[in-house]
């Protein structure tokens, strides 16, 4: 073929006429160009994905850093609140200002900071769109959401009513200062409750033990049911007038009665302590408030556990009622046992080890064992408040005596500081929560009804019980004491902690808001009026609460031995004194020698066949020390100086001393002899075959049976 022929055939025919190898060489650059362009496109797409992932990681790091900064700011806010409160307390004490207590100051500062955070800080986040899960019939505590192949975890914060779905707080800072309710129960409440038991004035507490138990148990139950029934009537009224927008059951009213019956007269007791008010009144108020908190929390748990059979789960059912009573008794007794056992274990560990040679380790162990009591009880289904309270009492009575001098001082000061900071933190948070809490339900009818109900419940709590208690008391609870106890029914940290623990439903949110306002009113108004009320009721002040009242004719119970009529007329009081004395004998002869380094050697109190066990359990210090061991903080019920026998002009006390003074009672309590006190006491009281039959002999008891 000639070259001209190819031109005449046309381009298509000429191309087909090319050899394959030449054609491949001609098309290779084109194919390589397309491949390079595709690779470049893929490379640019991968680079873009990597850049996007890097940007997401950077955004996540910035969010974490911002969250950390907000956490630091929220904690710094509370620390500054406490610092300001402490400085103001010093100023008030320096100026002798008593119309406002430190807890009231903490609440005021919390209110101020809450207003600033609520209205003075801009919104820093926005809401994404709502996702509908109509196929689910319940809320999940943890939710995994698949977003474009990536899984994100979300936790449940609580229910939002449909009317407030568009007004949920957008400020991240306000969310940060809203604490988990478990923080109050597991971190803030244990040192407060433990300090109440560890610093208990046992002598005055047990002198009025019967009255304190009546006020704490029976009085709290009466107050709970009166408040609950009155509030149920208020709820029915709200339903009639159309102010009730959701369900509010009778059990909810009883629950409110239980949590609002927890008194916390911290303001009144602080003023009593500062003015040295009457020791019996102080003991009654303090003892009631200590046990009242424990009863209120167990009572509220029993009401929550009330579950009648049938469709109507809120109707009255006798079987469910008695089951709740059994739950109450079981939880309380179990918590009491757990607290006492933990205290006993700590006493044994500190006695049979050489921890006293290392005060730092000793203090650390004491602190951890005491705090773990609360968590152990909660983990076992009991109530940590009751457990840690009785753990504190047991630690003060037994373990304290085994500690070194440094550890005694450290533990006292440590829990005193923790109690002070935790309590003021809670009251500061109360003021803050009034503006930062997102689920308030304000109902004027419910709030006014609650104030009336707690007044009537407190009156039914104090006056009838005082009347019946006075029937068996020699030292009567006077009308001025009763009025002061009625006036001192403040609500505080425990009521607030119980109310904030569950705010998921409409009824619980209304209870929380009302409880908060009640705490504000009682702390500010009633707490501020304590000093004028003391003066108006003519209650004596200037009495050292650590000392016994001065001896006078009304301070002792005298049992005449001249005839059966006198003895029979005082049988009730004599049996009461005998019961206290029986416990003291058992504690002094057996428990103290086993758990501490004090008391008589067990070889002298246990039977002879227990000689080996007695020698193993008795501390060597009991044999080594010739002087009576000092138990500076363990005066309990009766001591050697609390019983005195008088024979004419001679006096024989429980420690074996005698004198020619007139009939009187030794007031040098708080110290015990090693082994002779009980032997002398039994011999002088005629235990066994010997009897006190001398005509004219008087057995003089102090008022240990005021209960």
Outline the secondary-structure elements:
Layout: H1 3-9, H2 11-16, H3 20-95, H4 102-119, E1 142-147, E2 150-155, H5 172-176, H6 181-198, H7 202-207, H8 209-241, H9 250-260, H10 266-275, H11 279-304, H12 318-352, H13 359-379, H14 384-402, H15 405-436, H16 444-470, H17 479-487, H18 493-500, H19 506-528, H20 530-536, E3 556-560, H21 564-569, H22 571-595, H23 602-605, H24 611-617, H25 620-624, E4 644-647, E5 650-653, E6 658-659, H26 676-685, E7 698-702
Antiparallel strand pairs: 1-2, 3-7, 4-5, 4-7, 5-6
Helix pairs in contact: 3-4, 3-15, 4-15, 6-13, 6-14, 6-15, 6-18, 8-9, 8-11, 8-16, 9-11, 11-12, 12-13, 12-14, 13-14, 13-15, 16-19, 18-19
Describe the protein's architecture and organization:
Helix 3 crosses helix 15 (405-436) and helix 8 packs across helix 11. Helices cover 64% and strands 5% of the residues. The longest helix has 76 residues, at 20-95. Strand 1 (142-147) and strand 2 (150-155) form a beta hairpin. The strands form two sheets. A five-stranded antiparallel sheet has the order 3-7-4-5-6, with helices on one face. Strands 1-2 form a two-stranded antiparallel ribbon. It is mainly alpha-helical and 707 residues long.
Considering the chains and any ligands shown, give keywords for the structure.
64% helix; mainly alpha; disordered C terminus; globular; 707 residues; single chain
Order of strands across the main sheet: 3-7-4-5-6
| First-last Cα distance | 137 Å
In one word, what is the shape?
Answer: globular
Mean pLDDT equals 75
β-strand amount: under 5%
Q: What Rg do the Cα atoms give? A: 37 Å
Task: Please state the structural category.
Answer: mainly alpha
- State the low-pLDDT regions, or none: 5-15, 550-577, 626-707
How many distinct beta strands?
7
Share of residues in helices: 55-70%
Quickly count the helices.
26
């Amino acid at each position: 073929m000639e070259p001209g022929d190819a031109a005449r055939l046309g381009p298509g025919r000429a191309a087909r006429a090319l050899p394959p190898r030449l054609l491949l060489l001609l098309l290779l650059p084109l194919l390589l160009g397309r491949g390079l362009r595709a690779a470049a496109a893929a490379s640019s797409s991968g680079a873009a994905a990597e850049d996007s992932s890097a940007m997401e990681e950077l955004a996540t790091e910035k969010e974490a850093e911002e969250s950390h900064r907000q956490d630091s700011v929220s904690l710094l806010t509370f620390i500054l609140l406490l610092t300001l409160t402490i400085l103001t307390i010093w100023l008030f004490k320096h100026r002798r200002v008593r119309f406002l207590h430190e807890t009231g100051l903490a609440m005021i500062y919390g209110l101020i900071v809450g207003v600033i955070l609520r209205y003075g800080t801009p919104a820093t986040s926005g809401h994404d769109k709502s996702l509908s899960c109509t196929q689910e019939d319940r809320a999940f505590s943890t939710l995994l959401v698949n977003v474009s192949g990536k899984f994100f975890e979300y936790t449940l914060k609580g229910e939002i009513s449909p009317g407030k779905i568009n007004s949920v707080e957008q400020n991240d800072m306000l969310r940060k200062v809203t604490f988990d309710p478990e923080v109050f129960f597991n971190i803030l409440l244990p040192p407060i409750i433990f300090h109440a038991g560890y610093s208990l004035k046992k002598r005055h507490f047990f002198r009025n033990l019967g009255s304190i138990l009546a006020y704490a148990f029976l009085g709290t139950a009466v107050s709970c049911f009166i408040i609950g029934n009155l509030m149920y009537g208020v709820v029915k009224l709200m339903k009639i007038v159309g102010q009730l927008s959701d369900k509010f059951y009778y059990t909810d009213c009883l629950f409110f009665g239980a949590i609002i019956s927890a008194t916390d007269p911290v303001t009144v007791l602080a003023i009593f302590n500062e003015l040295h008010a009457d020791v019996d009144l102080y003991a009654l108020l303090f003892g009631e408030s200590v046990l009242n908190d424990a009863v209120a929390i167990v009572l509220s748990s029993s009401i929550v556990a009330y579950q009648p059979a049938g469709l109507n789960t809120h109707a009255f059912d006798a079987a469910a009622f008695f089951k709740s009573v059994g739950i109450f008794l079981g939880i309380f007794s179990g918590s009491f046992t757990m607290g006492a056992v933990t205290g006993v274990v700590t006493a044994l560990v500190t006695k049979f080890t050489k921890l006293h040679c290392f005060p730092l380790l000793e203090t650390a162990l004491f602190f951890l064992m005491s705090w773990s009591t609360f968590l152990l009880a909660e983990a076992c289904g009991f109530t940590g408040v009751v457990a840690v309270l009785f753990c504190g009492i047991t630690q003060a009575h037994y373990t304290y005596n085994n500690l070194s001098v440094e550890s005694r001082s450290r533990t006292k000061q440590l829990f005193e500081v923790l109690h002070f900071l935790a309590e003021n933190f809670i009251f500061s948070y109360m003021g803050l929560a009034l503006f930062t809490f997102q689920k308030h339900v304000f109902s004027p009818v419910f709030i006014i009804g609650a104030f009336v109900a707690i007044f009537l419940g407190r009156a039914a709590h104090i006056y009838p019980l005082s009347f019946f208690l006075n029937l068996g008391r020699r030292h009567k609870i006077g009308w001025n004491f009763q009025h002061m106890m009625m006036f001192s029914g403040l609500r505080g940290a425990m009521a607030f902690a119980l109310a904030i623990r569950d705010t998921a439903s409409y009824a619980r949110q209304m209870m929380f808001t009302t409880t908060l306002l009640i705490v504000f009113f009682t702390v500010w108004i009633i707490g501020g009026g304590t000093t004028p009320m003391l003066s108006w009721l003519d209650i004596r002040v200037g009495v050292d609460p650590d000392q016994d009242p001065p001896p006078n004719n009304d301070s002792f119970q005298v049992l005449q031995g001249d005839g059966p009529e006198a003895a029979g007329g005082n049988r009730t009081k004599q049996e009461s004194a005998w019961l206290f004395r029986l416990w003291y004998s058992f504690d002094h002869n057996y428990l103290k020698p086993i758990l501490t380094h004090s008391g008589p050697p067990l070889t002298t109190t246990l039977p002879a066949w227990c000689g080996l066990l007695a020698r193993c359990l008795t501390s060597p210090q009991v044999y080594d020390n010739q002087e009576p061991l000092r138990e500076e903080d363990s005066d309990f019920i009766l001591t050697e100086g609390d019983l005195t026998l008088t024979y004419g002009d001679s006096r024989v006390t429980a420690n074996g001393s005698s004198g020619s003074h007139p009939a009187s009672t030794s007031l040098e309590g708080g110290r015990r002899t090693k082994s002779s006190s009980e032997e002398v006491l039994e011999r002088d009281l005629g235990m066994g075959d010997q009897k006190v039959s001398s005509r004219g002999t008087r057995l003089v008891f102090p008022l240990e049976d005021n209960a």
